[in-house]
TrEMBL record:
It comes from Bernardetia litoralis (strain ATCC 23117 / DSM 6794 / NBRC 15988 / NCIMB 1366 / Fx l1 / Sio-4). Keywords: Amino-acid biosynthesis, Lyase, Pyridoxal phosphate, Threonine biosynthesis. Belongs to the threonine synthase family. Its EC number is 4.2.3.1. Residues 2-83 form the Threonine synthase N-terminal domain. Pfam families: PALP, Thr_synth_N. It is an enzyme of class 4 (lyase). One of its GO terms (biological process) is threonine biosynthetic process. It catalyses: O-phospho-L-homoserine + H2O = L-threonine + phosphate. The modification N6-(pyridoxal phosphate)lysine is found at K111. This is Threonine synthase. Its cofactor is pyridoxal 5'-phosphate.
Amino acid sequence: MNYLSTRKNGTNNEEKVSFKEAVINGLTKNSGLYFPETIPSLPSSFFENIENLEDNQIAFEVLKPFVKESLNEQQLKQIIKETLNFSIPVVQVENNIFSLELYHGATQAFKDVGARFMSRCLSYFYSKNENNQNVTILVATSGDTGSAVANGFFDVKGINVKILFPKGKVSPYQEFQMTTLGKNIQAIEVEGTFDDCQKLVKEAFNDTELREKITLSSANSINVARLLPQMLYYFLAYKQLKIQDVLGNKKLVVSVPSGNLGNISAGLIAKKIGLPIERFIAAHNANDTFYNYLQTGKYEQKASILTYSNAMDVGNPSNFERIEYLYNKDLEATKKDISAFTVDDISTIKEITNCYEKNNYLLDPHGAVGKLALHQSLKENEIGLFLETAHPQKFSEIIQKAIPNYESEKVDLSNAKKLFIKNSYDELVEIILK
């Protein structure tokens, strides 16, 4: 499997690399994102019998074509074993509506799967590093990515991690998970928004002089090793729905809380492979760049807006390029597979309250956005699945607005270790080179 740049019309757009090279490089030479040259198809028999397969077997069959020249079968199986070491249950919330709980991993967020998979890949790729040079992982986060990457790469030999997060725009629990590990994990608080952090990361990857001095890689969903394993959620959810015997003749619709569009991009690739999902819903908060694109056909990036569902506070989502590439910039074809809805903070709080009182089910703010978007779109002949992307306790201050007597685990930030920079690339480079 080769990987190409999403930027077909740029300079140096003939780049063609292996999975290993794509993972290590992070971004393409013309500053695009890597995308598989072809999307392989799985036979219909695979889906007809998926309920009889072990989770690790499903993951192996799905991922094998994407990595086979870079990882042998034994290596891939071991990575999958270490990645899928926690449950990913489908839970019925109400009639025809189910939650896919992605928060049962180490940092209680969906990004644990991608971060663990990528860290194991890099460990294999750099185990025979001839120059004995450490790899620097540079990542921007609006909250959960930083937590998952910090945990996934913690104490991994030969890899240093630098995490950029926006000051005052992540929850205390998220900050705790990023800033209290130490060792090879360094948290950097930035005076700005997530988009500012992401811009600094991209600037570093485009800095030829810097990359001659150090080996630099990314762990955001811009990296294919973070993106591709996120497909697995959808396959494992479909298996469980078949086991629960709830699909019948109904079509499956999946609502994805969407910020940087990585999770929904992975779902769309899963659909192209053959997974029988009828359509996706991109569920947004006030950061509605992709929603507006589907309405108008024009992509206009915005400054990000701070909301209660902070992991989705992205005004210029990187993975838009992958969706555009996948559909060859055909808006009508894109709209056949994806619709979008926006949900404000007031509605988010109301949904958390209503769902808890009526269904005895506690949503986090992102899941609440996903569930509300599903309600606005679901038809009688459809089964709806929304992604519950993080544990509610990570957003206890928000949950308490909806459920005043809610109590969560307290976090102690007195031992937090972090650096602070202004929105300055020169300051970032100084830290990286130290």
